[in-house]
Amino acid sequence: MSRVEMLEGLRKVELPTLGHVLEEGFCHPQLRPMNGENRLFGIARTLDLREPDAVAVNHALLALQPGEVMVIRVGGGLHAPVGAVTAAVAVAQGCAGIVVDGPVTDIAALREVGQRLPVFATGLTARTTKRLGTLPRGGCAHQGEIEIAGTTVHPGDLVLGDAHGVLVMSAEGLDADILDQALASDRDEPELIAKIRRGVPLADLLVV
């Protein structure tokens, strides 16, 4: 299976199915979809927002490439780095989605762009970032390793999300065997459920 085929396979497989074959990379359940249950899939661009600096967020937004997912760690977890303007810029940049280990704001505007920009966060707040200008002085870090919701994220990692949460995977460590197992499970599950509903003896269907 080629790398391209593996990536396309990951786009199709359900996250809970990957949960049958993977243990690492799943973010804490507090990180959840904010603006619908649209599927998220893209390459991580990271921002360690150690201070509530809107200028640092703008730097990261301007560096976004199409297909990337902006992943933001919010130091302190009290300020929203993402709202209506941020989302509009991200859509214009071709961003695949945003994951914030912290709150977001302007929920009505985020819902309006939900189909184009899935946003995952820990909740909502009216307290937002300020124009502090800390990034050039090292107060915030762009494109470095960060920790979000109990999971380590590196620039270039694959970020997947849906109604069940967020999964981070190393782009270099894709395992064709694991993907094959997951795709087979998704393919076989409808028939298994159909047999249960038809009354096939459960002992013949379940692994015990």
TrEMBL record:
It catalyses: oxaloacetate + H(+) = pyruvate + CO2; 4-hydroxy-4-methyl-2-oxoglutarate = 2 pyruvate. Homotrimer. Pfam families: RraA-like (PF03737). Catalyzes the aldol cleavage of 4-hydroxy-4-methyl-2-oxoglutarate (HMG) into 2 molecules of pyruvate. Also contains a secondary oxaloacetate (OAA) decarboxylase activity due to the common pyruvate enolate transition state formed following C-C bond cleavage in the retro-aldol and decarboxylation reactions. Its cofactor is a divalent metal cation. It comes from Leucobacter coleopterorum. SUPFAM superfamilies: RraA-like (SSF89562). It comes from the Bacteria. InterPro entries: RraA/RraA-like, RraA/RraA-like_sf. This is Putative 4-hydroxy-4-methyl-2-oxoglutarate aldolase. Belongs to the class II aldolase/RraA-like family. Its EC number is 4.1.1.112, 4.1.3.17.
